[in-house]
Model the fold of this input.
Amino acid sequence: ITDPLVLFMPSGKRGRFPVGTPVLDAARQLGVYVESVCGGRATCGRCQIEVQEGNFAKHKITSSNDHITPKGAKEERYERVRGLPERRRLSCSAQILGDLVIDVPQDTVINAQTIRKDADTRVIARDAAIRMCYVEIEEPDMHKPLGDLDRLKIALMHDWGLKSLDFDFYLLPQVQGILRKGNWTATAAIYKDADSETARVVALWPGLKNEAYGLACDIGSTTIAMHLVSLLSGRVAASSGTSNPQIRFGEDLMSRVSYVMMNPDGREGMTVAVREAISGLVDKVCAEGNVQRNDILDSVFVGNPIMHHLFLGIDPTELGGAPFALAVSGAVHIKASDIGLKLNQGARLYMLPCIAGHVGADAAAVTLSEGPHRQDEMMLIVDVGTNAEIVLGNRQRVVAASSPTGPAFEGAEISGGQRAAPGAIERVRIDPDTLEPKYRVIGSELWSDEPGFLESVQATGVTGICGSGIIEVVAEMYLAGIISEDGVIDGGLSARSPRVTANGRTFSYVLKDGSAALTEDGPKITITQTDVRAIQLAKAALYAGTKLLMEKQNTEHVDRIHFAGAFGSFIDPKYAMVLGLIPDCDLDKVSAVGNAAGAGARMALLNRGYRREIEDTVSKIEKIETALEPKFQEHFVYAMALPNKVDPFPKLSA
Ligand code: FES
Done:
């Protein structure tokens, strides 16, 4: 008779096991990750699974609750004391009696804040670098002079199948107290890399410690975003963000590098500022999630190369000019305390590798989250900031570059521009016959020509125009014939509409007028010729960078485009294509993926396999230095036109 067949979902891993094998053991043998803190003693409740009932024809298997042992005394005691959701079983107690399809509940889905349709279905498989391991230790014996720590080590290695085990030194003076307090039981937080044989105890508690947390943090040059995540369930306990206080040293990255070059203690000042902001965020997420700093055992940080260096206390001056040398490009594994971050004393800190001097650990995290290297389609990922980071590729090959778009897409250096915030215009439509505009602002659901609009924006007023609004207004001006293919505002239209007005030797378009004639209150917002030029320069830089990567890939088109980052979340793909920011592509294959860098950081936090995956991938990504590519200029010039002088956009007209 053959042994029963056990199939684990959603991974699909399967194998045959003798009757009586605990389901947890079967999972372990197949490499299916099921959490366990108590080591199978039916006390932690982390190992829950569900039996799927029915016939699974594809696998020729009939699965039933009768194919698993009924709850035993230990499991019943757990259910009485802690409660078990209906149909859930403790896989350490339940044993295999017949063929089974087992559902391993996955509580962890990628970033819920992303607006992509398929986002909720993507699951982060858990296999954290930190594991919580409960043990029972032999009491000391006068006749066996083995130290308390040594007996703890033997018990941990035996119960948890470890080949070698070290201890963080700071624990040595504490071991005796902890073991006695726990009455010869303890829970160790054990840190182990994906590919290392050596495990390390980084924290120790008396008795059963059934919770551990980690931080996933994206250090943006404008905003820092942090998630506090349970390492045991994958649940996000709290999320928060704050503006990067380094802004007071310089708005954009290059001005921060200049600040370091010109001020002897500039680097130090910016390092202190960002670390303080991060520490403040830790307080915030801990308060919101009702978690102690001492329970945070791991952390993953991502950021562009300059943020990465400043956070680690490294002078970023070399990144200010060719050859843009990184002090360290590989992943960084340190203790959080090495940089003065107060978490648990043994907490670890991991930074993803940087791709190149201009393309940082944030782009690596975006790549990990979106996974161009896992699929056949040619995927383009753009993360638009003052520097656009661009990744293009598929399973065969991935190339990356950054392109100097400047701050125009973020609303800076535009006459009425502002950051995306309540009161900023974010959507624009222009009637091609009358040239009259209507718009919507952040914080209101109404268009400006709808009744009740003025009341709906009373709190903030209409204060300016943000990045996505600028993209739309320039695209709508083009579609309404106010600007030509070359981006010139047609002064002849001033005879037809008071919206087109002379402004020195060029013309402007009045989007919003404070005067009674155009019946709107608040500041006047005009789109000047200079504004249109700034958008043309930014979009040409982005497109030229993309085009270079497409040439390197030997491809004429891309299958899918993902916009990462805040800007991408608000931009309407149609307008991005009308302006020629991105190459031609099916519009329904262009999507905004939100804070993909944060999602990638969470993946690396919850699964050490992802750390290895992205380290491998980054080592193979080919980096293109746009500044050194002779064809960049040519692509740039063509891309100044709307949407492009030479490249067709068939999907747009269709
Ligand atoms: Fe702890 Fe099953 S492993 S309850």
Q: What stands out?
A: The first helix runs from residue 23 to 30. The chain has five domains: 5-103, 130-206, 213-351, 365-407+535-653, 416-527.
